[in-house]
Write a structure and sequence with these properties.
By secondary structure, the protein is of the alpha+beta class. The protein has one helix and seven strands; from the N terminus they run βββββββα. It is elongated and about 105 Å long. The chain starts with 10 loop residues before the first strand and ends with a helix.
Length: 161
């Protein structure tokens, strides 16, 4: 495998991507890293071992990424530490792997425990009064109706003569 001077990506999330990474990470986390100038794709590995002997996620030759984030699309195990790394690539060469990041997934919920629900503030209720029709509008409607009736009567009388 051949590497060049293509820069290493810096892991961003979960929590800085350092070896002392995030805890209580969801089972399908979004992994993100910074972009690298000149790179047109990235490769990603996620494993329960920092040696990456049998990666759980292995997006290398067949799974190339053109974005700087990836959401794992299958559930990881509860309360497990995972290691991850990314490298940038160009059309002709691969860069070196980033520093290895780590995160620990959330603990399995206790059976019978109520789910944690985030309370949202209810939207304020604004009491808007129903619109009222001004009395002058009714006067205009009545006058208009009278004029229509007068016109119909005049048309009918004119036709008889």
């Amino acid at each position: 495998e051949f590497t060049t001077g293509v820069a290493k990506p810096v892991l961003v999330s979960p929590i800085g991507g350092a070896l002392t990474g995030g805890v209580n990470t969801p089972l399908r986390p979004v992994l993100s890293w910074n972009s690298v100038d000149g790179a047109n794709r990235y490769e990603l590995q996620v494993d329960t071992s920092a040696s990456f002997f049998a990666p759980f996620v292995n997006l290398t030759d067949t799974g190339r990424l053109d974005a700087t984030a990836y959401q794992i699309d299958k559930d990881l195990a509860y309360d497990t530490t995972y290691y991850w790394r990314v490298r940038s690539a160009t059309f002709t060469s691969l860069g070196d792997w980033s520093t290895v990041g780590a995160f620990t997934t959330m603990s399995k919920p206790v059976a019978g425990a109520p789910p944690i629900v985030v309370q949202q503030q209810p939207a304020p209720i604004i009491n808007i009064p129903a619109p009222t029709t001004p009395s002058w509008v009714w006067v205009v409607i009545v006058i208009g109706a009278i004029l229509v009736i007068v016109m119909v009567v005049l048309i009918v009388r004119t036709r008889r003569v």
